[in-house]
């Protein structure tokens, strides 16, 4: 599914983020920037040790923030490491921190002139964020950013599995109708 926001495109695909041909891919990182499981582990395995070596120079990355490294052996040029929140009950700043993680990654794209980026669904794996809520926050944040900045030209949500894709598709249909996007 795709929607246009000005000159930019927001697209949903089901697939493997490590196989994306966008300029940058976003990693669902932890604050220590140490290779973990899930998306993080897959990116580090596919990209090789240079990603972790470069990330180590940052020391850590607070929840809601993002940092950038090279992409090692991946098709992408860059990996943007965004740290989403661990979900407790949604009443401990989780929505704001999740939106901030997406915005931080998108701001890095602007700063570096990156025109295409692929995101996973941040915080919905091991961090336990409920998919429908996370999808609304992610998409609302991305749409708002694209309306304001017009860049990156392509933001692709790469979703792992049918359940994730369906949650994002439902949220995008709802937001697109509300925002008048096609």
Automatic annotation (TrEMBL):
Highest taxon of source: Bacteria
SMART domains reported in the protein's UniProt record: A1pp (SM00506)
Pfam families linked = Macro
Annotated InterPro entries: Macro_dom (IPR002589), Macro_dom-like (IPR043472)
**Residue ranges of the Macro domain?**
1-176
Record protein name field = Macro domain-containing protein
């Amino acid at each position: 599914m795709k929607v246009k926001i000005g000159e930019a495109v927001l697209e949903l695909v089901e697939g493997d983020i490590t196989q994306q041909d966008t300029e940058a891919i976003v990693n669902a990182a932890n604050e220590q920037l140490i290779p973990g499981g899930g998306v993080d582990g897959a990116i580090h395995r596919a990209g090789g040790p240079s990603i972790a070596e470069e990330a180590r120079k940052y020391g850590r990355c607070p929840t809601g923030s993002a940092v950038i490294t090279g992409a090692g052996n991946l098709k992408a040029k860059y990996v943007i490491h965004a740290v989403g929140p661990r979900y407790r009950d949604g009443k401990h700043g989780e929505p704001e921190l999740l939106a901030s993680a997406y915005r931080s990654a998108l701001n890095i794209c602007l700063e570096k002139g990156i025109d295409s980026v692929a995101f996973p669904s941040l915080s919905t794996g091991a961090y336990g964020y409920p998919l429908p809520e996370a999808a609304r926050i992610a998409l609302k944040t991305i749409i708002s950013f694209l309306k304001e900045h017009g860049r990156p030209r392509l933001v692709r949500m790469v979703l792992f599995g049918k359940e994730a894709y369906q949650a994002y598709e439902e949220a995008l249909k709802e937001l697109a109708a509300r925002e008048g996007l096609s």
